[in-house]
Amino acid sequence: MTASYSTASPAFAFDNSFARTLEGFYVPWQGEKVPSPRIVLLNEALADQLDLSLDATDGKLAAIFAGSEKAEGSEPIAQAYAGHQFGGFSPQLGDGRALLLGELLDREGQRFDIQLKGSGRTPFSRGGDGKAVLGPVLREYIMGEAMHALGIPTTRALAAVTTGEEIRRQGLKPGAVLVRVAASHIRVGTFQFFAARGAWDEVSKLADYTIARHYPEVMTAGNRYLALFEAVARRQAELIARWMQIGFVHGVMNTDNMALSGETIDYGPCAFMDRYDAATVFSSIDRNGRYAYSNQPQIGQWNLARFAETLVPLIGAEDEDHAAGLLTDRLTDYMGIYKEAWLAGMGRKIGLAQAKGQDTALIQILLGSLQGENVDFTLFFRRLGESLVSEEGQSALLALFEDPDAIAGWLKDWRIRLAEEALPLHDIAKAMAKVNPVYIPRNHMVEAALQKAEDFADLREVRQLLDVLAHPFDEQKGLEDYARPAPSGFGPFVTYCGT
User: Fold this and answer.
1) Is residue 284 in a domain?
2) CA angle (258 as vertex; 498, 189 as ends), nearest 5
3) Do 314 and 271 share a structural domain?
4) Residues 114, 249: one domain?
5) Of all residues in the chain, what percent are helix, strand and coil, respectively (each to 5)?
6) Domain check: are 195 and 117 in the same one?
7) Which H helix or E strand runs over 323?
8) How crowded is residue 394: how many other Cβ atoms within 10 Å of its Cβ?
9) What is the distance between the alpha carbons of residues 406 and 181, in angstroms, rounded to a whole number?
10) Do 241 and 290 lie in a common domain?
11) Last residue of some domain: 348, 381, 396?
């Protein structure tokens, strides 16, 4: 049955700077018609930030968000990019199932892309159907909103739309489209696409656009392209440090999945660790652990090296060896910035307002003590703070360990170090509670909610999960199940590239 739409067109004040400025960096395209688009989730808080008045029951809006209809002022495009995928270079990837509808300015004047994922084939589809199904769409919605609530730079979901189709993915699944909001979709792979073709004028044009959009402060630098690299490297170092502090595993850190804005992008086979294990891998296709939890900082540096390669002629066309040396120096700085951000964040997790260099050993010994003990990463740090203020909290902390003696020595050293903070333990515990969440997207809870949504079109658990994750640091009565680790029969947990 063909859906009928309202005649009024939802108002979007699109300002399409990418399409206007970077002709040749994309293909104009329109999404495929779908039989019965319906908005099943609408992010009203994000819509308000974008100064949008949207109605989830509006059929015209659903058609626009499914890619079937064009919004007034929109210039839908599929962006071109290349990328290293698991270390192997693909010179042409691009938006194979995504469309950039346009850009909006939020209430503070910040520019955001509005992109559809799952709206059908494009010239970059490489044999795929260009579609998405409901489970992975909802998974990205949940993950992005959870990361946002945790204060981590991320793309977000404005809406999830079902299409009325059935898509073949290990059986038939309900078709869906994600409406994604991002500071931009400029990737390391976007630069690689043109650098691989020796199109240095285009690389320069893209770099200038990136600077104007994300790093205007470097425009007047002596060498703005070198300054751009430094700024991008700093944001990536700080972002990945945040991932490590909360036990997040991205799962597919290809260069086409590294956004120059410094946001977490492309939530495919991602997940949060349950028990601590430095070698944690969730992705079904990461058979060698390239993107394991502990490898993420180094992979960030590897990806940045690929970005640096695209900038060499811009930084020093007359002496590329010198330019490469300058970039290598800045690439070396990346790891120092990462370690500094990691230490500061991990220090706060254990109650240190200003972690010092010697505290690195204290934190590394702690992580070594957690390894192999089947200790829940999130729950450990939450209970660590609670152990400062009650005997009950101390008992609950030790109960996480199969062998409590594994942590006993470290706890003594930690208490000695806390004494140097010269703060009441209650104040330290309060500060720890502000950085150690109670609630994360627990894998077993996410999977249960997605299964109900896909199998029974029942999104109540998805909505409840989103409500809980919106306040990750505030313990709430009646929501204890959302804070508990997975039951013993759950796992091993495997994720897939669904969107």
Assistant:
1) yes
2) 95
3) yes
4) no
5) 45, 15, 40
6) no
7) helix 320-349
8) 16
9) 44
10) yes
11) 348
User: Does the annotation mark 256 as catalytic?
Assistant: yes
Closest CA to 268 of 279, 256, 260, 280: 256
Give the end of a domain, one of 126, 151, 185. 185
Judge contact between 152 and 279, C-beta under 8 A: no
Contacts of 58 (CB under 8 A, 6+ apart): 6, 10, 39
Strand bridging mode 156-168 / 172-182? antiparallel
The token duo for 473 is 């640091």
Tokens of 137: 């769409």
139 lies in the same domain as 234: no
Buried residues in 56-78 as b, exposed as e (16+ CB within 10 A) = bebbbbbbbbbbbbebeebbbbb
Whether residues 129 and 211 fall in one domain? no
276-313: per-residue pLDDT in tens?
999 999 999 998 999 999 999 999 999 999 999 999 99
DSSP string, 164-197: EEEEESSSEEEEEEEEEEES---BHHHHHHHHTT
How far, in Å, CA of 215 to CA of 186, rounded?
13
Phi, psi of 300 (to 5 degrees): -55, -45
Number of domains in the chain: 2
Q: Tens digits of per-residue pLDDT, 94-117?
A: 999 999 999 999 999 999 999 999
pLDDT tens readout for residues 476-496: 999 999 999 999 888 788 888
Give the tens place of pLDDT for each residue, 234-262.
Answer: 999 999 999 999 999 999 999 999 999 99
Compute the distance between CA of residue 390 and CA of residue 407 in angstroms, rounded to an integer.
Answer: 18
Peptide linkage before 492 cis (omega within 30 of 0): yes
Q: Is residue 56 part of a domain?
A: yes
Residue 218: which domain range? 189-348
- Tokens at residue 192, please? 């690689």
From 58, 95, 113, 256, active-site residue: 256
Please count the CA atoms within 13 angstroms of the CA of 189 that sit on its side-chain side: 25
**129 in a structural domain:** yes
Residue type (1 letter), 350: I
Q: Do residues 219 and 103 both lie within one domain?
A: no
Q: Nearest CA to 188 among 81, 86, 325?
A: 81
Coil vs helix vs strand at 275: strand
Residue 434: both structure tokens together: 């502000």
Residues in a beta bridge with 102: 114
- Residue 242 and residue 167 share a domain: no
Q: How far apart are the first and last CA of the chain?
A: 26
Taking CA 176 as the corner, what is the angle to CA 171 and CA 179, rounded to the nearest 5 degrees? 150
* Residue whose pair of structure tokens reads 């989830």 in the numeric block: 56
12 within some domain: no
How far is residue 453's CA from residue 401's CA, in Å, rounded to a whole number? 35
